Amino acid sequence: MPRDVILTPEGLVKLKEELAHLQTDRRREVAERIKEAREFGDISENSEYDDAKNEQAMLEAKIAQFEERIRAATVVNPEDLTNDVVGVGSTVHVKDEKTGKSQKFTIVGSAEVSPGENKISNESPVGRAVLGHKRNDVVSVQVPKGPARKLKITKIDVGL
């Protein structure tokens, strides 16, 4: 049973674009590799052919995985978001109570995680800790080493 996939509308669009790319351009590229490999002669001893067929199998598995993700996706409705409570799709500003360091990140489903864009999963320790909380709440986040970090939610933005 696949687990629920939570996506923002932007994440759904990106997933569909990636699927379309795999189904068109990548399939064509792999088919061309198979065609070229066949031209090398006897396919029973042709490593290029075997490699191309393996690549085709992996590509088809990846396409099936993307199709299943899209089928199982629950898309967050931006109109349902509020800046009163943290939810998937919220941009959260927090301040570490100990260091005074401020951070900002967007809570997204696990399929959209992108640390470089400050998009963290609702299943991550910080994501789980802040979900459902309000502005000025202090949440405790367990870290791998040392005492739990205390984060104060300073602002909640809506808008993906």
From TrEMBL:
PROSITE patterns assigned to the protein according to its UniProt record, in alphabetical order: GREAB_1, GREAB_2
Domain (Transcription elongation factor GreA/GreB C-terminal): residue spans on this chain: 82-156
Gene3D superfamilies: Transcription elongation factor, GreA/GreB, C-terminal domain (3.10.50.30), Transcription elongation factor, GreA/GreB, N-terminal domain (1.10.287.180)
Domain of life: Bacteria
Keyword list, A-Z: Coiled coil, DNA-binding, Elongation factor, Protein biosynthesis, Transcription, Transcription regulation
Domain annotation Transcription elongation factor GreA/GreB N-terminal: ranges: 5-75
InterPro entries hit by this protein: GreA/GreB_C_sf, TF_GreA/GreB_CS, Tscrpt_elong_fac_GreA, Tscrpt_elong_fac_GreA/B, Tscrpt_elong_fac_GreA/B_C, Tscrpt_elong_fac_GreA/B_fam, Tscrpt_elong_fac_GreA/B_N, Tscrpt_elong_fac_GreA/B_N_sf
One GO BP annotation of this record: DNA-templated transcription elongation
Coiled-coil positions: 12-69
Molecular function (Gene Ontology), one example: translation elongation factor activity
Signal peptide span: none
Alphabetized NCBIfam families for the sequence: greA (TIGR01462), PRK00226.1-4 (NF001263)
UniProt family annotation: Belongs to the GreA/GreB family.
Its biological purpose: Necessary for efficient RNA polymerase transcription elongation past template-encoded arresting sites. The arresting sites in DNA have the property of trapping a certain fraction of elongating RNA polymerases that pass through, resulting in locked ternary complexes. Cleavage of the nascent transcript by cleavage factors such as GreA or GreB allows the resumption of elongation from the new 3'terminus. GreA releases sequences of 2 to 3 nucleotides.
Protein name: Transcription elongation factor GreA
Gene: greA
